[in-house]
Every structure is written in C-alpha cells, then in structure tokens.
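Task card 7
Instruction: Convert sequence to structure tokens.
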Amino acid sequence: MSKTKTKTKIKWLLFHEPVELFLRTAQDFQKHLDELTNNKFEIEILTWNDYQEKYLDGMLCEPFTELKEGRVEITQLYSNVVGQFDATDFYALSMPYLFEDHNHASRVFEGPIGKQLFDHLYQRSRVRGLAYTYSGGYRCTASTTPIRSINDFANRRFKRETNPILADMIDMVKAKKVTNLPSVDEEVELLETTYPRYHVDTTKSQKYVTDTKHSMYLTTILMNDEFYNSLSKEDKEHFYEAALRASRVERVRSVEDAELIKSNKDKQKSLGIEELITWPDSEIEKLKSTWAPLYDKYKNFFSFDILDKIKKA
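Output:
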C-alpha cells in the first residue's frame, strides 16, 4: 500500500479587523491552492492573538516582521503598513480619487503597474507580493456630527495615520490632525473607514457616515521570500494563481458587503450608523479639486511615475 504524502504546513497570519473579512480570503486561497496542487499544502490560519499565544507565549509581535523573518509564510496587510517598511510607493494607493472605478483598479493591480509595485516591495524589503485585495473597498468618512459639505471639515479633529498623504489631505480641508495613538486629551471627531470596517474603526459617537468615496482601503497578500524560493517553479506559479483567484473573489465580496450596508437602513442601524450622508456631485467635485494639488506635490516622491501610469491605465 502506498504511503500518504505529508503535506507541507504553512502559517497564514491574520492581523487586521474585522477578522471575518480576512479569514474568508485565507480560506478561499486554501481552496484554490488545493485544487491547483492536489492538496500538497496545509495552511494554518491564525488570528494575531492566537498566533501570539500559541507561538510567542503571549508576547506582542509585528506581522510584517514575522513574515519577513520567516516565522510565518503568508499574511495580508494594509497598504499603508507596507509603506511603513520602506516600500513607500504603496502610499500612492491612498491618493484621493485615484481610481475611476473597480475595473480601473483591477487593470492596475493585475497589470504591469501592480507588478512594478511588487518589484519595489521586494527590492526594499525582500518580501514577495502575491495579489492585491480591498478588504473594505471605497473609503467613507465617519464623524461625530454630520459632514454635509467640504466646509464642515474645518477645525474638526481628524485621525491621521503614518501616511504623509493623509496628513496633507487633513490640512487641505482645514481640519486638525490628531495622532493615531490613543489620547485622553483629544477626541477624534473624524476618521477614514469603509462600510465593512465601520464597526471596528469607530466609537459610538462617530455615528454619521459621509459617502466621500475618496480612496480605497487596499490590502495585499504577502509571502516570505525564503519559503517562496523553496518551492518548485510549478508551485510558485500555483501560489500566484491561487492568490489571483482569491483576490478577485475578495474584491467582489468587499463591494457587495459595502453595498449591502449602504442600501439597508436596518443594517446601518445595527452597526450604529445614525445617518448615511450622500453628497451631490458638485460637492464631490469640490473635494476632488481641493485635493488635486497633491498630484503635483507627490509626483517625484515615488520611485517611478506611478501616479501618471495609474491615471492612464
């Protein structure tokens, strides 16, 4: 009787919330990989807390570092997090009104620009990029009071992250930057979120949502380089293909998740959204015009002409 071949075990670390969004992507990836490789690999999908308890004796960790140093083989991270690890071209993906629609985004992610961006990531960090995902889709703005026009941003305390582009965006609408670190002295009145992420990003007081659709909450499926190099040429292709398939499904699901919330008042109420505010096209155009100078400011910030290439894709 033939001996059953042992599966190669790998760890997939989930970091961001809501966990269910990232869990289903990892599970979908496993399904596609099983089909492509005839079940050669067994993926242990771990939340951040579970990983720390099981493998680090409860010590805190940073997921990008765990991946880079080979303690996990795959993770899925927010593009701004990737930018913090010297792959600063990833900050370009958060430019306001960069993508015309989801088809435009797919052409960028699955074409030469997406590959060039992953090449940049590898050159800067020796981490492999497999595919681009949404994990939330278009951003909206949550607030403690209604934001009915661009003028309503003025003097409001807006939560910023490490991304320099967001810091400039806050200044340009005359809001006040608040650190992303917890503070008892400064209540956050405004923050970026997405509809599927609203309940994990916000507090009860941030119960108004303005559908600004100003950029996309983008994540990437990443792989450890040493593990990648241990694979056969065929299996390397299988991992890329499984990631591509899973990312396409994930992006569709993220759009559907957002539309379900936007179109269902009962769902909004259950999440704590008191009012969803839709601006007229004229107000969206004012916001676009206000942030348009960022394209000149950051034109030479990136390692290649990524903004121009994306606009023309």
